[in-house]
Amino acid sequence: MEAVKAWSFTKQLHPWKHLFHFSSSTPSAIRRSSHSSLVLRCCSSTTTATAAGGRNRRSSSSSSSSSSTSSTESVRAIRLQKVEELRSKGLEPYAYRWDRTHSANQLQDIYKHLANGEEMNGENDHVSIAGRIVARRAFGKLAFFTLRDDSGTIQLYCEKGRLVNDQFNQLKNLVDIGDILGASGSIKRTEKGELSIYVNSFAILTKSLLPLPDKYHGLTHVDKRYRQRYIDMISNPEVAEVFRQRAKIMSEVRRTVESFGFIEVETPVLQGAAGGAEARPFVTYHNSMGRDLYLRIATELHLKRMLVGGFEKVYEIGRIFRNEGISNRHNPEFTTIEMYEAYSDYESMINMAEEIVTRCALAIHGKLTIDYQGIEICLERPWRRETMHNLVKEATGIDFNKLGNDLKACKEVTLRTLGELDYKDKSSIEACTSVGHLLNEVFEIVVEPKLLQPTFVLDYPIEISPLAKRHRSHAGLTERFELFICGRELANAFSELTDPVDQRGRLEEQVRQHNEKRAEAVSETDSTEVKIKKDDDESYEVMLDDDFLTALEYGMPPASGLGLGIDRLVMLLTDSASIRDVIAFPVPKNQE
Q1: 61-99 pLDDT, tens per residue?
Q2: What is the bridge-based pairing of β-strands 313-321 and 333-342?
Q3: Model confidence over 466-483: pLDDT tens digits?
Q4: CA distance linking residue 555 with residue 401, whole number of Å
Q5: With 0-12 CB in 10 A as exposed, 13-18 as middle and 19+ as buried, what is 320?
């Protein structure tokens, strides 16, 4: 790229020499466009840079916060003066519109065969483009901008011979890196092979007041990148590309499920009781109704109400809110797709999960072998299917089918077999209230991190699956699976429980167990163990959703349901290490 990145010149250029040295030789070409923006025609002669053009006022070697803040304020003050200068000339620095004929990538594609040094100046080769200026270079009789739009970048080529009057002086004093410009002209490819717009005219569409961070000393603080994502996207185009791919993935998910006849519906975000999962909800207060409401922790229970109402295939892609911890896998708000199909069981949802993931992988990569954080993942179907009992036995040698229901004895065998455990894992095992909980705890500690290739884990204990139908062949288990890839859960599915009496009993037991833990936490408020319980979010209240139970009593058809984490799917397919990398504006850990 002939237009050198602006930040790479921070140390080389005098603070005021980043603006172009334009001049004049013919009548004035400043004019008011129909959208009241500053339109400049290139001009010709020489001038010297003035102090009004200073962008690189801050030293790139400065590392102190106060110095950076002072530099930013100085730049902002200078740019505000430029805004006033524009308006004093009757020019509006914040335009209403700009008529574009092409995007940058369209021009790159249309003129990809243009030879070096060749110019296209026909009637159809006069183009108009708009975008942000991210780089520049000026020397002798030439000046270059690099303009970036949503599709990519292209060079603006300005030559002295085309400049008129004194407009170059105004250009160099008014335009900064970060400004959004519109430009019109013909097409040429430079001798060095850079496709360029040979500029005839351009306009300041938006005057930037704050300087962009330089390439090497700019927006590097991780939390600040998330908090000021808009700067992150400008400075790092690959970040914006993740969100384009996210949009493509979500479109492919919709296309896939709708090809199987599912209908998209919407369910309430504000709910009278937070149900469908066991998680701490966010609580808000409705003034006119004088009552607490909860941000949903799942879409499940209302989607099942749709089945009761007569719909047979429904899905929802929506935001879920859980007032819990933040990690590279967890964000307080995240996106899922949940779908429910009448007259099917969990076997059909295994097929649906494979369809969604493989079609999205093909849409993004065009293949089913992908890399995630240095690990090669093969998504070729069919994926491995194994029961939780067998996976635990395979990894630890413990056969829970033979241990019986003596919880104390099961814990002793487990702790003896697993040997050295850290305090948290040992405490989690000792706190288990049933053999089913113990089995799941061992699975999460030992097995889950090792499930790198796609694996369906089948037949979960009934104690941890209050919304799933009892297994038709194995007592104490449910017809439930979870999909794991790269050691993390991606999807969860059931043969749905439709017996309203059984459902009420299981939910009431879940509430009872939770309230016992909650009471224990309250009674030991000063102990170290309590702090652990608070970290595990045991102190919140769990309530029955009586209206859901009433709906079941009217009759819900046999059905299967699937929930799949959109954010984790995007992480997998974009090779993103953290969930915060695939959410445009994640909740900041520390608010400045």
Answers
A1: 434 455 666 788 999 999 999 999 989 988 899 999 999
A2: antiparallel
A3: 999 999 999 999 999 999
A4: 34
A5: buried
